[in-house]
Amino acid sequence: MGTLQMAAPGPLTIAPQQPPDVLDLSLVLPTYNESAHIEAIVEQLVAALDGIPGLKYEIIIVDDDSPDRTWEKALQLSQKFPQLRAIRRQHQRDLSTAVLQGWQAACGEIFAVMDADLQHPPETITELWRAMRRGADLAVASRNVEGGGVSDWTLPRRIVSRGAQLLGLVVVPEVAGKVSDPMSGYFMVRRSALEGRELKPLGYKILMEVLARGGVEKISEVPYVFRETPERPSKHSPAVFAQYLKHLSRLRIHLLKTSPFVRFCIVGASGTLIDTTMLFLLSDPRTLNWTLTGSKIIAAEVALANNFIWNDLWTFEKFSRRQNSFRQRARRFLKFNLLCSVGIILNLIILNIGFKVFHMNRYIANLSAIFVVTFWNYNTNRKLSWRTTAKE
Ligand code: GDD
Ligand code: MN
User: Fold this and answer.
1) Are 104 and 85 within 8 A, CB to CB?
2) Does residue 209 sit in the same domain as residue 339?
């Protein structure tokens, strides 16, 4: 197959697999000035993959117009190895987007990526494949599980690598904490976990992007030893680090924007505003001066209806889009009411204790009650009304 030119990408999405060229595995090797290594790595990979009975695979080299003409070498090699394809990108130079464009052109049911400079041992590919066959959505080759490691890394390099991982754990713990080696560039992922999702990769850390935006549930880790080669010092420059920071903050914003808990709290805040206004209109001595408990029940009910509507349309949109008949919505509204009624009782108890026992200002007592009840409401409703953990 020849070289292929690709337009500069916006967000990248993976299309569904197209028969008849369906394969089991598509392995992408991103390259930049790897002409000295690719022959050896392709030979070793072919030997390893041919050893897996019945496996239909392809290897896709995505080269960013390397000055050492890696793409040309790849093209020559593809004559010897029909399962090898070469893509030459002429106007971009970025590891993550190269990998994704390789996957976009891929025919496999499972995607893989690894470095092309022999620092990732080719034989580990078999272990990763086995992990996927056992049902993993994602299998990562990790330096940080038993049996894995780094050969001859200098102390400063170890510190930088661990520092980057720590930073990831602080900024996006729900992503970086999913695996022991979130910096790994050697892994396999099911196409179905990425299909139709918008990916906006940046820089080196494609795995973080996949973990954050892909539908990955079952993860498996396989140990490997990162081979240091003296002639190849790390290319991690300040620019790469700056890209990493930008990528992390982008992921953080994305996760906040789509986090059901954050949405639930925003909806809750709108409900609180309604609740507090109603409480003022009904119970304040300057207005209707009704009893505190009676006023609170009415105020809370109105806020509740408001919250249900927004939570159903926005907070848990993924779930409610699938279960959108009138009956299903009505059932959810009933469950939501029931669970929040318990919440209201909890709220009343806290409000009264605050107001009567501790002589707190009624609004402050009410806000404290709402704070506690938010956690009750979120967790019970998430599990029981919009069952996000259940498999359909
Ligand atoms: N197409 C393309 N474009 N490929 C690139 C580019 C680029 O701009 N930059 C690097 N590559 C290719 C290299 O040729 C190599 O095959 C692979 O991407 C990794 O690049 P290295 O420069 O060798 O990375 P490293 O040795 O520092 O390895 C670290 O990063 C890897 C990638 O995330 C480690 O953290 C590895 O574990 C990790 O796999
Ligand atoms: Mn390398």
Assistant:
1) no
2) no
